[in-house]
C-alpha cells in the first residue's frame, strides 16, 4: 500500500514537471522556505532558487516552477524554483493567451533574476502586435507579470534573425551609434553607445 501510494504521488506530480504549480508557504527559515503542495506534500524552496526580494508570509499562496520530480525509495523528491528561465516562460503563458496558443513566440530570454529581464518576441501572425499583446490594454497584462516578479524590470523587444537589427531592438530605448559584428558564428558583437545612454542598455 505504501509503495502504491508513493507511485501515485510520483505520477501525479510528474505531470507538473516543467510547469507551474501553486504552493502554500508553511515555513520561513534562514536559507529556505517550506511549501505545501497538493496532497499535503512538502517541498523546499531554497533562497538560491528564490527571487532576492521574495518576502513571503505564512499561509501565502505562491507559484513555483517544477524543475524535476525524482522517484526515491521514500516519497518523491520535487525540485522547485522561481528563478528558472522556464518559470518566466510559464508565467507569460498564463497571462498572455497569444503566447499560450503559439501565436506569439518567446524566442529568447536574457535575465538577471530580481533585477532585469529582456524578452525577445516573434509574432506568427502579421495582424498581431507581439509587444502590444503582451502589454495588454492599459498595461494590465504586464502589470500582473511585474507583480509576480516583484517589480523586476521587464524589457520586451521584437526578435529578428538579422544580427544588427536584433541588437538594435534588444537594446531599445538606447540609441546605438555603431555595431561591429566580431564573430557571427559565436554571436559576438561590439556595441557603441553614448555614455549617457549606457544606463538604458
Automatic annotation (TrEMBL):
Any single GO CC term annotated in Swiss-Prot or TrEMBL for this entry = cytosol
Q: Which GO terms describe its molecular function?
A: RNA binding
Transcription factor NusA first KH domain boundaries: 83-159
Keywords for this protein: Cytoplasm, RNA-binding, Transcription, Transcription regulation, Transcription termination
- Pfam families named among the record's database cross-references: KH_NusA_1st
Q: Which GO terms describe its biological process?
A: DNA-templated transcription termination; transcription antitermination
Q: Which InterPro entries match?
A: KH_dom-like_a/b, KH_sf_prok-type, NA-bd_OB-fold, TF_NusA_bacterial, TF_NusA_KH_1st
Name the UniProt record assigns to this protein: NusA
Q: What gene name is listed for this protein?
A: nusA
Amino acid at each position: 500500500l505504501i509503495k502504491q501510494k508513493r507511485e501515485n504521488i510520483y505520477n501525479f506530480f510528474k505531470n507538473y514537471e516543467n510547469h507551474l504549480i501553486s504552493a502554500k508557504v508553511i515555513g520561513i527559515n534562514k536559507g529556505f522556505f517550506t511549501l505545501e503542495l497538493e496532497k499535503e506534500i512538502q517541498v523546499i524552496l531554497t533562497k538560491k532558487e528564490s527571487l532576492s526580494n521574495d518576502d513571503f508570509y505564512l499561509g501565502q499562496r505562491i507559484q513555483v516552477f517544477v524543475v524535476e520530480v525524482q522517484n526515491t525509495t521514500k516519497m518523491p523528491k520535487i525540485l522547485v524554483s522561481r528563478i528558472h528561465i522556464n518559470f518566466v516562460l510559464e508565467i507569460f503563458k498564463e497571462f498572455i493567451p497569444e503566447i499560450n496558443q503559439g501565436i506569439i513566440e518567446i524566442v529568447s530570454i536574457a535575465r538577471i533574476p530580481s533585477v532585469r529581464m529582456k524578452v525577445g518576441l516573434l509574432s506568427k501572425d502579421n495582424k498581431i502586435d507581439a509587444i502590444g499583446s503582451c502589454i495588454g490594454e492599459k498595461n494590465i497584462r504586464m502589470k500582473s507579470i511585474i507583480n509576480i516578479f516583484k517589480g523586476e524590470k521587464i524589457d520586451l523587444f521584437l526578435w529578428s534573425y538579422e544580427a544588427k537589427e536584433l541588437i538594435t531592438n534588444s537594446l531599445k530605448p538606447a540609441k546605438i551609434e555603431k555595431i561591429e559584428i566580431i564573430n557571427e558564428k559565436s554571436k559576438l558583437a561590439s556595441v557603441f553607445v553614448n555614455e549617457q545612454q549606457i544606463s538604458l542598455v
